[in-house]
Automatic annotation (TrEMBL):
Signal peptide (residue range): none
GO biological process: methylation
Highest taxon listed in the record's lineage: Bacteria
GO molecular function: methyltransferase activity
Transmembrane segments: none
Coiled coil (residue ranges): none
The protein's name in its UniProt record: Bifunctional 3-demethylubiquinone-9 3-methyltransferase/ 2-octaprenyl-6-hydroxy phenol methylase
Pfam families documented for this protein: Methyltransf_12
Taxonomic lineage of the native organism: Bacteria, Bacillati, Actinomycetota, Actinomycetes, Propionibacteriales
Native source organism of the sequence: Arachnia propionica
Domain named Methyltransferase type: residues: 56-151
InterPro entries: Methyltransf_12, SAM-dependent_MTases_sf
Length: 288
């Protein structure tokens, strides 16, 4: 089974949905002072970006990429999905934001972009789960960076990725076909999915995406989880020096519907006792 092709088709179809009704708030990008709420959350830990050459791996529609440009970086955006890059180029052009967008698998990024070119490798939220081999990813990051350059990652926490939410007392018949089984009313999270990296992916079929109102034309996808220790050690073993690792009780989408509430920054956390769940993490490392 060609998992990369499955995910490419999935994200091509998601891209068309995300630019439609109830999708990404693309009208806000026209404001030259606007940055995405994802990058706004990252900003205290991003450091100075002015004058840096950066690459955003798995950039999708490029709204976060544009935000990094507005903070002063010269950005390249890379994504597996040709349709995502097509929309990203249009959005950047319409808003007169200079971004160099490239269609490529992450693991081919060095071949496509060249080695030692970047001061910043940025990997945003919801990206690492689409990669089967976290050590190969870390090696790619190492090769992209020039001396003194840094990696910035904020992503969903692998504990969150291990959870299924289901209604209390209900064994839902479709729970192995969908990542989040919730229904309405009281729900509880259950640790049922792999925490550590696994060779074979989890296969999902989601008719609707996390944004947009239309059905996704190619609903199948393949995902892999990576333990926090695996991510950290992959980065260290690739030759980078860890500078920051912090865990957050929030994530910028409603990952457990019926259990989470949003704050005024667009971050979702458990409505009750949010201290129970590490929902996301930020990692910063440097090539010394």
């Amino acid at each position: 089974m060609d998992h990369q092709a499955i995910n490419r088709d999935n994200w091509d179809s998601r891209a068309d949905v995300h630019v439609g009704a109830r999708g990404y708030a693309l009208d806000k990008v026209a404001d030259p002072s606007w940055i995405s709420h994802v990058v706004a959350f990252d900003r205290p830990r991003l450091g100075e970006l002015r004058g840096l050459d950066g690459v955003h791996l798995q950039c999708h529609l490029g709204t976060d990429t544009i935000s990094l440009v507005r903070l002063g970086a010269r950005m390249t955006g890379l994504d597996l999905s040709p349709r995502s890059i097509e929309h990203a180029r249009r959005i950047a052009a319409e808003n007169k934001v200079p971004v160099d967008y490239v269609v490529s698998d992450v693991y081919q990024a060095v071949e496509v972009l060249g080695s030692g070119r970047f001061d910043l490798v940025y990997t945003g939220i919801g990206a690492l789960c689409w990669l089967p081999d976290i050590r190969r990813w870390a090696g790619t990051v190492r090769a992209l960076l020039r001396s003194g350059g840094r990696l910035f990652v904020r992503d969903a926490h692998p504990v969150l990725n291990s959870l299924i939410a289901q209604k209390v007392g209900e064994d839902h018949p479709d729970r192995k076909q969908q990542p989040w089984i919730t229904g309405f009313g009281e729900a509880t999270p259950s640790l049922e999915l792999p925490y550590w990296e696994h060779v074979e992916p989890l296969l999902w079929r989601d008719e609707y995406s996390y944004a947009g109102s239309e059905a996704v034309a190619s609903p199948e996808s393949a995902e892999w989880n990576h333990a926090l220790s695996e991510i950290v050690m992959a980065v260290i073993d690739a030759g980078l020096t860890l500078e920051l690792l912090t865990e957050h009780d929030s994530v910028p989408w409603d990952a457990l519907p019926g259990m989470m509430v949003a704050d005024d920054q667009g971050e979702y956390r458990l409505a009750e006792r949010p201290e129970r769940l590490p929902a996301s993490f930020t990692l910063v490392a440097r090539l010394v």
